[in-house]
Write the structure tokens for this entry.
Amino acid sequence: MSKKETLVSERNSLVIQARSIMDNSASTADQLSQAEVMITNAEAKGKEIQNIINLENIENKIQTDIESIQNAQGATEAPLLGGDKLGGADYLNSFVGLCSKGPQALLDKSIMNVMEVGTDANGGYTVPTKLNAVIIKILEELNVMRRVGRKIRTNSTEEFTIEDAVGAAAWTAENASYTENTPTFLRKTIGAHKATSLIKISEELLQDNISNLVEYIGYAFGKQFGILEEVAMTSGDGVGKPRGILLDAEAGLISAAVGAVTFDDLKDLLYSVKTPYRNRGKFMMNSDSARVLSKIKDTTGNYIWQPAVTAGTPDMLLGKTIEYNDQFADIATAAVPVIFGDLSEYIIADRKGRTMKVLNELFAVNGQVGYTGMERVDGKLLVTEAVKKLTVQ
């Protein structure tokens, strides 16, 4: 029991005793004096409890600040090309003109000058901040890993130092030698894998000057990239694509029953994760596994599943949020249908901004204009002990 828990228990006991004496009309003067002392002691313990809570809040704030600094190393949330010009109306309007008219739009010097701030090394143009926001929103809606993971923006390959073993202190006799225990560290890198897509739009549609062209391109690329990312970030092998969370999450336990998951399995999985990660932990599974698990009852006949009753609130299991990922396997022998842990330890690194090229001539014979979208991204679970897997035997 922690000091705070001990103090709370002692304070509550004093309050109960004092209340019993004060409410008893037969209490003597000595007993009433004892009750006053109990109340004074309870107040003192209450102040000590509050001091501990205040200290914990400060420590949590310090830890949050440290994590924010670590997350921001080598990263920036600002557009990496052209500063805030990528979010301006001039750049957006020029980008729309380029999409509609192709390279001919660059004959207009005013458009060309504006577009230069977003030119990348390969001749494409960085997607405007407004459109990029549309793409990211769709990516997050379609790719649950983007929603639960920790996202950073990078200019180059990032190297992270991970504590592997902290070492151990030891009780030492007087005049005896210190026991040497040196912490060890691992280095893990996050690079960038290239994802591309090509869409074609008819010349007739472009001539009609559809007003939502920018939103359509954002939707199309966002949907394609979102699906591609979710598959890789769930189970990808890391070769030419992000490394999936299922590959690096540690083995939590094997189910007690063959081909099934029990209530005890879920509790064991929950408590197989270390306390700091468990406190921030979430379950992840697909919809069919959720259907099966939602029917499990405890020993009193109550369902362990806590479905959301208010729109916008998540379903809960054992007091923890459930995230749905349809890339997960169903509950079956040798499958890994459920994971639990601090999913924010999955790091997603976006390399600069997304870019697009207009292929005005390549598909002209078919009366179409092509648009290529490209992004460079990587993902990896850096702290493997933060997430544990449930494997069905």
Observations:
- Residues 73-83 have pLDDT under 50 and may be disordered.
- Residues 196 and 282 are 31 Å apart (CA to CA).
- Residues 3-72 form one domain.
- The longest strand covers residues 368-381.
